[in-house]
Amino acid sequence: MKRIALMVFRLFFKAFYYFYHICKCGSREDISYEEGFRWVKRTTILANRAGRVKIAAHGLENLPEKDGFILFPNHQGLFDVLVFLESCPRPFAFVIKKEAADIILLKQVRKALGSLVMDREDIRQSMKVIQTMAEEVKKGRNFLIFPEGTRSRQGNHTLEFKGGTFKSAVKAKCPIVPCALIDSFIPFDESSIRPVTVHLYYLKPLYYEEYQNMKTTQIAEEVKRRIDEAIAAHEASAPRE
C-alpha cells in the first residue's frame, strides 16, 4: 500500500519512539487505557498527516455527555479506526475481527486500549465478546463496533447492519451513536498517495428510552437509515468536480 509506505517513510525515526510507548501501554497493567489512548491518538494524528490524509469531523457535540456509549459506524476500509482515533475526543476501545488481531501495530494498539477480538465463525465466542463489551460499557468505557461485520467494498454504500451487534447496547442500556464515514476507503484501499479528506459525521445518539421496546433488527435498520441519510446529504451538498 503506497500510503502506508509513505507514512512509514516520513515518520521513520519517530515511529520507533511512539511504537515503544504504545507497546509499553499494552504490556503494563498499571497504565490505564486512557493513557494508552493518548499515545495512540498522538501517533495516529502524526501518521495521518504524514500520509496526506485530513480528517473532517462533524457533530462532535452529539457525543453523550457521560462516558459509557457505543459508536456504530459503517465500515468502509482498513483506515476506518484511524479516523476515530484522530477525531474522537473521548477514549474508546474497539472490537476487531480475529483475522486482523495480530497484524503488527494493530495488535499493539488493541492491547493498549483493551480492545476485544471477535471470531465471527464462533457464535459462542462472539456472544461472549458482546457480553464482555456490555459489562465494560456499564463501567463507563466507550466502544466502537462495526455493525456490518465486514467492509462494504462499495465505496460510500452500506451493507446490511446485523441486529446481533446491537445486543451489547441493549444489555448495557447505553447510548447508541450512529456514525457516518465518507471516503474512508480511499486512503488504504486505493493505490494512490494523493491528498484526501475523509469525513466523519457523529450523529445524534439513540438513548435506551428510545429503543428499549425495539428488536435488535429494528435498531439496526434505524441506525443504518440515519447513516445512509447522512451520507446522501453530504454527497448532495458536496461540490461537483
Automatic annotation (TrEMBL):
Keyword Nucleus assigned: no
Annotated keywords: Acyltransferase, Lipid biosynthesis, Lipid metabolism, Phospholipid biosynthesis, Phospholipid metabolism, Transferase
Broad EC category: transferase
InterPro entries named in the record: AGP_acyltrans (IPR004552), Plipid/glycerol_acylTrfase (IPR002123)
GO biological process, one term: phosphatidic acid biosynthetic process
GO MF annotation terms: 1-acylglycerol-3-phosphate O-acyltransferase activity
EC number: 2.3.1.51
Ranges where the Phospholipid/glycerol acyltransferase domain occurs: 69-184
Keyword Lipid metabolism appears in the UniProt entry: yes
Reaction(s) the record says it catalyses: a 1-acyl-sn-glycero-3-phosphate + an acyl-CoA = a 1,2-diacyl-sn-glycero-3-phosphate + CoA
Sections of the chain in a coiled coil: none
Annotated domain remarks: The HXXXXD motif is essential for acyltransferase activity and may constitute the binding site for the phosphate moiety of the glycerol-3-phosphate.
Protein's name according to its UniProt entry: 1-acyl-sn-glycerol-3-phosphate acyltransferase
Lineage, opening ranks: Bacteria, Bacillati, Bacillota, Clostridia, Lachnospirales
